[in-house]
């Protein structure tokens, strides 16, 4: 009886070891879903549990950008099953830009979008990229090379302007943004885009009232959707 | 035979003692020796020759666009003095035009030995935290444009507050801004 028990135990050990060995070489479920045609976008609403951001007519920037981001995520995932949208941080969480960048780089996202808003008299939308106008001229570093944190953007320095221009052109031709001032893309060293290897774009919306963020949901979704269509 | 008289020995000892004392005091910076030379000492007439009047454009952002104001300044051969004076004038203009809600003063102006970096240290930030990123960038652009009037060569400007990199929610001031 004890010999049978011993054999069973050995068999169980072999099965467990084989399974562990097999799964370690298998792609994770997330990676599996991230097939050739899957596109991962990371949305980063400005502000977190500790930083409220700028004041809006009825509250703070963090609340508005969170709502805006959630609506964009919902609209993007509903319309396109190949798009996966993740948030840089959860509601009530506080993480620094370095952690966000680390998270984005490890996840190997395809696009990083930072959402910001401020109070103004005229509705407006602006696009920002990290770096300067000559960024696209910079040589892309090799995949396995040390790169300073503030130069991580050079990994996608040639693609980011293309993406930004596509979004900008989409905004220009969007009838929903007819009465909204659309600013030309600006290159600047922004904290919210620092350290990210994937193309990173910041979208800043000017709001008269806190509910004005609703005007931008469809416009941003459509711009990202058309960008995906061209890329996928 | 005695080589030295007692008196001579005494005088010599005292002289050596005083000499050593002054050397010790100088090395420990009890006093600073200032030797006037042609480079660091100018007579009032020489100074007057070196200082000239110059018309400079001061740029500022009024909420709609970049505006400029012509200002006559006393221009000397000392670049640090010129930058200091112009920046003080610009900060005053910012306050008058309500770009900044309160008066901001410039603490220090320094140029690196290589002449490539310019360090400007303020007592507080000149950027409104509630402003849009574009407004902040435009204000920085007005400062850089004004500095461009003083300098022909390319420099990288470091913005500091109390001698530490300026902190802003949106813009990264750890790195320099090319003029």
- The total tally of domains of chain B equals 1
CATH secondary-structure class of the largest domain in chain A: Alpha Beta
Helix content of chain B: 25-40%
- What's the CATH topology label of chain B? GMP Synthetase, Chain A, domain 3
Count interface residues per chain for the largest interface: A-B, 23 and 15 residues
Describe this structure in words.
The complex is a heterodimer of chains A (232) and B (179). Chain A is of the alpha/beta class. Chain A folds into 2 domains: 1-32, no CATH class; 34-231, 3-Layer(aba) Sandwich (Aminopeptidase), CATH 3.40.630. Chain A has helices spanning 2-25, 29-33, 61-79, 97-107, 160-172, 214-231, and strands at 39-45, 55-56, 59-60, 83-87, 111-119, 124-129, 181-182, 186-187, 200-207. In chain A, the strands form 2 sheets. In chain A, strands 1, 4, 5, 6, 7, 8 and 9 form a 7-stranded mixed β-sheet that branches. A two-stranded antiparallel ribbon of chain A has the order 2-3. In chain A, helix 5 (160-172) links the parallel strand 6 (124-129) and strand 7 (181-182). Chain A is elongated and about 85 Å long. Chain A starts with a helix and ends with a helix. Chain B is an alpha+beta fold and 179 residues long. Chain B has one domain: GMP Synthetase, Chain A, domain 3. In chain B, the strands form 2 sheets. In chain B, strands 3, 4, 5, 6 and 7 form a 5-stranded mixed β-sheet that branches.
Brief descriptors of the model:
heterodimer, A: 232 residues, alpha/beta, Aminopeptidase, seven-stranded mixed β-sheet, 6 helices, B: 179 residues, alpha+beta, GMP Synthetase, Chain A, domain 3, two-stranded antiparallel ribbon
Would you summarize the structure shown here?
The complex is a heterodimer of chains A (232) and B (179). By secondary structure, chain A is of the alpha/beta class.
Question: What's the arrangement of secondary structure elements?
Answer:
The complex is a heterodimer of chains A (232) and B (179).
Chain A: H1 2-25, H2 29-33, E1 39-45, E2 55-56, E3 59-60, H3 61-79, E4 83-87, H4 97-107, E5 111-119, E6 124-129, H5 160-172, E7 181-182, E8 186-187, E9 200-207, H6 214-231
Parallel strand pairs in A: 1-4, 1-5, 5-9, 6-7, 6-8
Antiparallel strand pairs in A: 2-3, 6-9
Chain B: H1 6-27, H2 44-50, E1 52-61, E2 66-75, H3 79-96, E3 106-111, E4 117-122, H4 133-150, E5 156-161, E6 164-165, E7 177-178
Parallel strand pairs in B: 4-5
Antiparallel strand pairs in B: 1-2, 3-4, 5-6, 5-7
